[in-house]
Every structure is written in C-alpha cells, then in structure tokens.
Amino acid sequence: MLSPSPAPAAERSRWIALVILCTGMLMIILDGTVVNVALPAVQDDLGFTNSSLAWVVNAYLITFGGLLLLAGRLGDLLGRRRVFLAGLVVFTVASALCGLAQSQGVLIGARLLQGVGGALTSSVILGMIITMFPEPREQAKAIGVFSFVASAGASLGLLVGGVLTDALSWHWIFFINLPIGVATALFALRYVADDAGQGLRAGADVPGSVLITAALMLGVFTIVEVEGNGWGSTQTIGLGAVALALLAGFVARQHTARQPLMPLRILRSRNVSGANAIQVLLVAGMFGMFFLGTLYLERVLGYDELEIGLAFLPVSLGIGLLSLGFSEQLIMRVGARPTLLTGLLLVLGGLLLFARVPVDGRYATDVLPSALLFGVGAGMAFPAMMTLAMSAATPQDAGLTSGLVNTTQQVGAALGLSLLATFSATRTEDLVARGATEATALTEGYQLGFTIAAGLVIAAIALAVVVLERVPAPAHDPAREDAAEPAARVLVG
C-alpha cells in the first residue's frame, strides 16, 4: 500500500498539534472551575476559614494573571513550544503537590506554582495556532476550536468537579491533571513543531518585565481582595493607584526601550485594542452566568454539585455547536465584527432573562432558555473576538499578542468576580436587615448581579460598534478548503 504523500501527512499533523495544544488549554481551564466546586470539601478537610479559603483561588489568579504577558513574550524570544512544555511540567508538578497537600500552607504555595505553570502554558497557545494556520479559513476553524475549549471548559469543569469530589475526594481534582499533563507533553514533543525563537537579545527588557509583572500581580491582588475590603477602602484605592502607576511606568519604559518587551504598535490597531477591551467586559459579565448562576442553583433551588454541572451542560453544548460548526462559516461569510456583535446580543439576552429568575424558579422555564442563549452567543462571540484580537499579530510577536489576549481575559474574570459578588452580597445583606427571607434576599441579590453583568455586556456592544473597524470577509478558496477538510475531521472524530 502506498504511503500518504508528505503534504496530507503534514496537513494532518497540524490539526493533531491543534488538538494537543487545546488539550493543554482545557486542562488549565477545567482546573479553575473544578477547584471552585471542591472548595467546601477543601475547607472541611484542611480547616480553612471563610476568608483564608479564598486564597486557594486567589493564589492561583495572582501568579497566573500577573505572568501571562511576560510568558507570552518569552515564547516569542525563547521558542513557543519550549515555553509551552516548560509550563506543562511546572503545572503538572504543582498539581501533584496540590493533591498531596495536607496543610493550608502547602496547598496555597502549590497553587501559586500552579499559576506560574498555567501562565507559561496558556500564554503561547493562541500565538502558536495562528502561526500554524496562516490561511484565513483554516485559521478561523482553528480559532473556533480553541474558543470552544477556552469558553466551554469553564462549564464542563463544574460537571467534572462535582463527579470527582462526590465519587472520590477533592485531592483528585488535582491528581487528574497528572496523566493529562504527561500525555500532552509527550504528544507535543512529537507533533508540535519546534521554533527557535528570536533570542533574548531581541527583547529582553528586564525593567519592563519587572514593571508589567508587578503591575498585573498587584492589580489582580487588589481586585480579588475587593470583596473583603470594599471598593472605597484605603487598601483598594491605595493598591489600585500603585498598580496603575506601575502600569504607566511600563508604558513609558516601552516608549524609550531599545528592545521593548511589548512594542506599543500592537495596541495601535483599533481591532486589537478594541477586542481586548471588549473581552474584559464580556468575561466580567459572563461571571454573572457561571458564578452567580451557580450560587442561585445551589443556595436558592437546592442543587448539588453534580446537578449544577448538568444544569450548565447546555451552555457547553451551545458553545460547541457554534464554535466548532458555524462560527468559522459566519466569520468567513460576513466578517468577524458582525459575528461578534450578534454573539454579544445573544449573551445579553441570556443575562437579561437570568435577571428575572424567581425564588421558586424551575429549570426548564427559568434557567434553560438563558443557558441556551448564553451558549449560542458565546460560541459566536469568542471565535470572532479572538480573530480580531490576533489580527495584527506577526510571527515575531504572536506569543506576546496571545499573552495579551489571555491577560485581558483573566483581568475580566477577576474584575467580574469582585464586582458582581460585592454588589450582590451587599444587596442581600440589606434585604435581610429589612426582614426579607433568606431565599428572597439571595434571589434579589443575584438578580442585581445579573443586571450589572448585562450592563457590562451592553458596554461591550457599544465599544464594538464605536471602536472596531469593518474588515472584509476573507475571499473564498474552495481548493484550500477541500484540502483542509479531511484533516479537520481529526477534531470532531
């Protein structure tokens, strides 16, 4: 039998490499929501207080969000595959330490290390994807797969976390990463092409690296501490001002550095800067669905962890259907900007419906329609948004641009969590003080949170209309599409 020609074999290898990269991303995304589900069990086992328990999440967020931009640039300089593999090693080892932890200090320390590994791994993935798939139609398809993993992984994590915590113990939410991490690294060595990188001399801006890492870490720390301190507290205002000053120092440094860490020309593109700003608002608003929605199902409707995971399964299915099936066709036919706007409007509709949930809500009539709208909208919005955010990336700075996309996503997540949790809790406390029942007070607090989340998405829509530039849909290339289609089946079996 004749062996396949080199071209089809290389084509298939690229799509296998995409699956490998997305598996690494899925492991990191799942870890975030899996941990959230298991927090009550962790608290009972290790004796965390309510305030100290937050550091199981915050420790990871601070190192993860703070290092993403630097990690992305290191990928450009040292080689993206090398940074990806180094991140997998660090993340997998840290996961083992988390699973073995028998004390609060060990668990929090291991979570800090996990954040470092997560930043190294995830920061370069999108840059590797657009480098591997330069042709517009293939790139749109590949970004759709990545977007599905990045956005649907959060809701899948709720289901996985519930199953592992109920069937085994909270330790296994970390141990499950070991075989995935090892297998992903081994397959990456075989299928993901190595790239030498530009070398540290092409952009080893040490002062800039220190400034941006300190600014992002301090900024994330300030945001995650808002729920305990309040937005108007001396600590929040003071630390926030220092973080902004460090960020301003970084921008000034980039203007004068001979080899800047982040060439500011990247942000001169309205589509790149606009898409990243939109992502901050959209991701912050999305926490209205995942964070407040989870609390509503648990505390008001009495769902357990597994039932919550199943309740959000339609979100994952909607995201998967659009990201893997239709988003690429829409982007190619009408362009990324109209596709993004349509997706944002559907997400807004889902949040507005959720803002009306009653105390005695029923899943089929009060939750499912919101989940479906949200899933379909996110499945359209994320691939289009990431296409725009990476539109000005060159082979020399694709890792940095990818790191920027991941950074704005994490800033949006931290901001949304703090903003929605604070206002929702304040509303609930006021109603309880006035004599309302706990269920009523909780529900109205969540309703306020959903309304604020909808407001954030409205702001994202306004920004998309005003800032984003119209980009013509890429030209149709049937020959290229036919050549890629057999290999693309690797992604869907």
Automatic annotation (TrEMBL):
* Keywords on record: Cell membrane, Membrane, Transmembrane, Transmembrane helix, Transport
Q: Which GO terms describe its cellular component?
A: plasma membrane
Q: What protein name does the entry list?
A: MFS transporter
Please list the residue ranges annotated as the Major facilitator superfamily (MFS) profile domain.
17-472
Q: Name where it's found.
A: Cell membrane
In terms of SUPFAM superfamilies, this protein maps to: MFS general substrate transporter
Transmembrane domains' residue ranges: 15-41, 53-71, 83-102, 108-130, 142-164, 170-192, 204-224, 230-252, 273-296, 308-327, 339-359, 371-392, 446-468
The main location class comes to membrane
What kind of membrane protein is this, topologically? Multi-pass membrane protein
